[in-house]
# Entry
Amino acid sequence: MPSLLTRFDMDTALQVLIVDDNPVERKLLAGLLGKVRPWQITASVCATGTEAIACVHGQMPDVAFVDFRLEGEFGTDLIRRLKDSGCRSGMVLFTGQAGETALLEALRAGADDYLSKDDLSIDAISRVIHNTLAKVKAARALDAALHDLKEAKENLELRVRERTTELQAAQDKLNTITSTAHDPIIMIDHEARITFWNPAAERLFGYSEVEIMGEEIFCLLPSSTFKRGLINTFPDFQHTGTGGLVGTVSEFTVKKKDGKFLTVAASISRFRNPQGWHAVVIPRDITQYRRNEHVLRRAMEEAQRSTRLKDRFVSLVAHDLRGPFTTILGFLELMEKDTEAPLSDKQKKFLRWVVEGCQKMLCMIDELLNISRFKTGKISLELEFINTRFMGEKVFSNLAPLATKKGITLINAVEEKARMYADPNLLGEVIQNLVSNAIKFSS
# Structure
């Protein structure tokens, strides 16, 4: 089978692998891929990471779309596994997120691009495939160029003229790749001096290639403890090629030519040549993403503060209402039991309705207070052994008028010796609510 790089140049036939445990999403993505042009796409589907690895070993696809959330693992972990197993396909993270968050997840996993489920369209898929193939092609061409450069240096004495020609060709290829890259690409030598500066870096930082070449990369960092730490530990990188930022995607602040500060997420990798350890830095501006994150965090804090105020308001109102209703109930009971000026049967009937209404309002107030206590974590359980049958009879006696009015018979089937260890007030409210709802919604 020809290499992926050659196949990209030869024809428009592409092999695409879809890894998604959702059959609907797999079918939708496969259908859209069949309509993408100019490529003639043949799609294979897998539901799990194990199936995907087996499929890749059978026939390596040109591009793999990997869902972010698979059954049993994350898509980012599967991408790392695929790359560790030798897969050189272009990787696209298929995710429900969008923007810088999805991009950072994809970059950290080693993916070439991401496709948002909220932007599933032929144009979006075409753009992602184009970008992915371009990145795969660029990465492999860059590897080839670096390999050519190394061979030319090893054979300097024997192939001076040939080496010069090859070196120039490789340099031209490298310039073509990096000049078309959307991300800044910066290379530094063993003395931390900038040796490569592509057009994207010029757009981000404001320095032209002529201005920045030969300067220490530390000039792009504002004065800070972070900068001093990098300067102090750079000798370790010179000797061993290791460091806290090497081989990772790190976030830090940089300074532009106009004095403005940016937050970047930078991928830093190393390579060694006869002079010593060199590094490639690929920073990406995430300033706006961090600002949006700050705004969202403040909005969440404000929402939490509003919720606390609301809960406190409900608690205060419920407390203030309970006192007057208790007083009203007390006077109503005195009127009902007054023997000196007894009420007529009709007056007692009306008075009983008022008493029952007040009792219902008190129950609602108690429920509001309990909800408030639950939310604030201030409710305390008063546990004791309860006669469960007696508890049921108590609830039935309260709801008997309502049940009789609807022609419903209440039957207490709890055994007489049944006991339960619980809070009697809270358990009573639970049983009261359950039986009351059963009566209300029964015909």
The first strand starts at residue 13 and ends at 19. The two ends are 74 Å apart (CA to CA). The first helix runs from residue 4 to 10. Residues 145 and 227 are 32 Å apart (CA to CA).
